[in-house]
Design a protein that fits this description.
The chain has a single domain, classed as Amino acid/polyamine transporter I, CATH 1.20.1740. It has 17 helices and no strands. It is an all-alpha fold. It starts with 21 loop residues before the first helix and ends in an 8-residue tail after the last helix. It is 73% helix and 0% strand. Helix 4 packs across helix 15, helix 7 packs antiparallel against helix 14 and helix 13 packs across helix 14.
């Protein structure tokens, strides 16, 4: 490991404070997963999958859950920030690790920009102000929260998680009476359409992978990180499938796909304009929550790689309020720049392609370590450590192909940039056990 030093007197490279417990991190995971995809992308996904939208959520959820197994196992072995970097470097060395971490870092920033644009779209639906201006105003407010410290950020996220989960439960409940009138297997594009929708809404499951970035601020990461991953995945997959069933039953896939505020449309259809207003406000809280947690995570990913020596050491500086301030300022600035040229569907597809490539590297890492006898478990457990990530690897590859070739090529180019950057900065050290 490389020691990180800061030339700024008020910022020093020191360990982050261990203040987070199981339920704090679990709710943070649920919050970052629930916030964006289902509120912002359920409409575009419905255009691909039709009434079988719920199957797309299920397919994406299974892929994410299998990948979460690799994160849980590797997280218990290497409970450090910048999870993708740490896990892949453990198996293949720092250069491959940096490429995985770089892909996920850029994906986090793309995702934050996508969700900020989604926030702007819902606010435009309410008051008519420009989408980009709305998104930038959100980033300014989020920045104020971020510099106050991780405990305040996560505590606010828990409150917003309760609000957004309440909104999704509302959609589920109001749509249930319409379930008997819908045909939930009708899809215009067959399994290919379902897969394309799953590739798009895989974005909706981003969040479980971010929990590893809280590892250095958890009191008992080896025990609680796998549990938090399991809780987050089960809860969110169940909610997503039920929301998809209710939304399709209430308004149909055609109207859902044509709306810029799809869940507000469901509320209006069932209960009228006042419900539209209420659901739009909840959507604003949900998307704001996701942006907050994505930027918290991205800043800690930069901190983790800088502390390991594969990014400039100054980026590992920690402020007097125990936050990685230089990294936080960078992620805010980069996200703001992306917002200015943002298109929701295109950025989401690029985000998914980068995420899926990073996940493929992580899913390769656990079997590699298991085959070499490095995982601390018996023969049966090691077999599972090979089979489950192997299945996740194939499913990630299948969804990657359905993000579209422009997104695949752009993500591959980002990976090459990361590999070249690692080759320049990193010699032969790696966080191995």
């Amino acid at each position: 490991m490389y020691p990180a030093r800061s030339s700024t007197p008020s910022l020093v490279a020191e360990p982050l404070r261990k203040t987070l417990g199981l339920w704090q991190v679990s709710f943070a995971g649920i919050g970052v997963i629930l916030g964006a995809g289902v509120y912002a992308l359920i409409g575009p996904a419905a255009a691909h999958a039709g009434n079988a939208l719920w199957l797309s959520f299920l397919l994406a959820g299974i892929t994410a859950a299998l990948t979460a197994y690799a994160y849980a196992r590797l997280g218990s072995m290497q409970p450090k920030n910048s999870a993708e970097f740490q896990y892949t470097a453990l198996a293949f060395g720092p250069r491959a690790g940096f490429m995985a971490g770089w892909l996920m870092l850029t994906a986090d920033l793309f995702a934050a920009a996508t969700v900020a644009v989604g926030f702007g779209t819902y606010l435009t639906h309410l008051v008519g102000t420009p989408i980009a201006l709305n998104a930038l105003a959100l980033l300014l407010m989020v920045g104020v929260v971020l510099v106050t410290g991780v405990t305040v950020s996560v505590s606010l996220a828990i409150v917003l998680t309760a609000v957004e989960a309440g909104g999704l439960v509302f959609v589920i409940v109001v749509g249930i009476p319409y379930w008997t009138q819908a045909e939930f297997t009708v899809t215009p594009g067959g399994f290919s359409g379902i897969s394309s929708a799953a590739a798009l809404i895989f974005f909706a499951y981003l969040g479980f992978d971010e929990l590893g970035n809280f590892a250095e601020e958890m009191r008992q990461p080896a025990r609680d990180l796998p549990r938090a991953l399991f809780i987050s995945m089960v809860a969110t997959t169940l909610i997503y499938v039920l929301v998809a069933l209710s939304a399709i039953a209430a308004v149909g896939s055609r109207d859902l796909s044509a709306s810029g505020a799809p869940l507000a449309l469901v509320a209006r259809k069932v209960l009228g304009p006042r419900a539209d207003l209420a659901m739009s406000l909840i959507a604003l809280a949900a998307t704001a929550n996701t942006v907050l947690l994505l930027l918290v995570s991205a800043a800690r990913s930069i901190y983790g790689m800088a502390a390991a020596g594969v990014l400039p050491a100054a980026l590992a500086g920690v402020s007097k309020t125990a936050i990685p301030l230089p990294a936080t300022l960078i992620v805010l600035g980069v996200t703001a720049a992306m917002v200015m040229a943002g298109n929701l569907t295109q950025i989401a597809a690029l985000t998914d392609a980068a995420v899926l490539l990073s996940f493929m590297l992580v899913n390769l890492s656990l079997p590699w370590l298991a085959v070499r006898g490095i995982t601390t478990s018996g023969t049966a457990r090691r077999s599972i450590d090979v089979l489950l990530p192997g299945g996740a690897l194939m499913m990630c590859g299948w969804l990657l192909l359905h993000t579209g070739w422009p997104s695949v090529l752009a993500a591959a180019a980002l990976g090459v940039v990361g590999l070249l950057g690692a080759w320049r900065r990193s010699p032969a050290a790696a966080p191995r056990q």
